[in-house]
Amino acid sequence: xxxxxNHSNNGSNPVEGTSVQPGTHHNDYAQPGVNxxxxxxPTDNQWRQMEASQQQGLSSANTSKVLGIIALVLSVILVVFxxxxxxxxxxxxxxxxxxxxxxxxxxxxxxxxIMNILAIIISLLVIALVIIATIVLANNPDFQQMLRDAQNxxx
Length: 155
Fold this sequence. Notes:
Blueprint: H1 44-49, H2 52-77, H3 86-104, H4 110-138, H5 141-154
Helix pairs in contact: 2-3, 2-4, 3-4
């Protein structure tokens, strides 16, 4: 991009290779949602004009995103309650299914799919760690003796 010093400014842009009509303004840095050009959510008018398949795809993509957020939050919060990891695992699989459905309708749902897969991975890791920890503790002779001592104190 260069400025031509010999160029007379008669309504055209002094930057070579570009032109702007007099009285118009070109904004290369348009904000999302301006004129609904970059809006992620369609307006009511656009929603009515969409085909049913596009509506289903957009609905599935949004559902996947919401399930992904919920599953991720629950998978992190429920680390202290390992049996609770089943819920984010189920939500994660449903979310991945919704993302795949959105993709079939031509609507991208990459964010929702990634969040749901992360939630599934975290949940499976926590469940695996709990199973491993249980096996290790059950086979530890010191832990078995401690359990016997606790039973003797109770009775």
